[in-house]
Amino acid sequence: MQVAVAGGTGLVGKYVVAELEAAGHRPVILARSHGVDLATGAGLLERLSGSHVVIDVSNIVTTRKRPAVDFFSRATGHLLSAARATGTEHVVTLSIVGCDEVDFGYYFGKRVQEEMVRDGGVPWTILRATQFFEFPEPLLGNRSPVVVMPSMLTQPVAARDVAEKLVEHAVKGPSGRAQEIAGPDQLNMADMARRIVRAHGRRRLVVPVSLPGRAGRAIAAGGLLPRGQYVLGRRTFDDHLASLERSTPAGR
Fold it and tell me: What is the secondary structure of 121-138 as a DSSP string?
């Protein structure tokens, strides 16, 4: 079947597209590089036409509430409107474990997104995932010998495991609020960053810093951990580190 992937050029989106292709489905990427602007809706109707399902892994890089709410409200609104107009049968949306428990700026945007999907008039599935193994890497991108990392307890999951589960839900049909997905181990974000640095053969000092306020305390204490029953990702953080070591040039 034809499946549209909103944000199909991003970290999870690329895995979703590959998984769809491997299963014999036809992915259609909804992204600016493919003529679609989710924030304005430009090009969306034409590109979405003929799709049975849309998987939404679109994203904005921000920690602030206002831009997060603005992006997700506009992008989700345009996507749902186009889905209704084109007869798309199912919307599968990726969200975050604990986003309704921790009052962190970005998570307000995800709350708006979830509410719009639930009330959007299109059969839906919302899959919440914990942070990805790759989460610390953008913060390690500068050349400073010292890297500040938020103090965060998480149960990180492989982006590829999340992509596989999203495609599984797309094929299965609407599930409403699906079981959350998380990785097999609880890890501190600073420790993850240190191990990533070593896997890349670098030397960096990683300094954990507590985020301010109630949200910072909740994040540090496990407010983003799964509760109750959840799907366990099959790949480990050690698997991820091994792949980084294989891809790092010798002598770097």
Answer: SS-EEEEEE--BTTTTGG
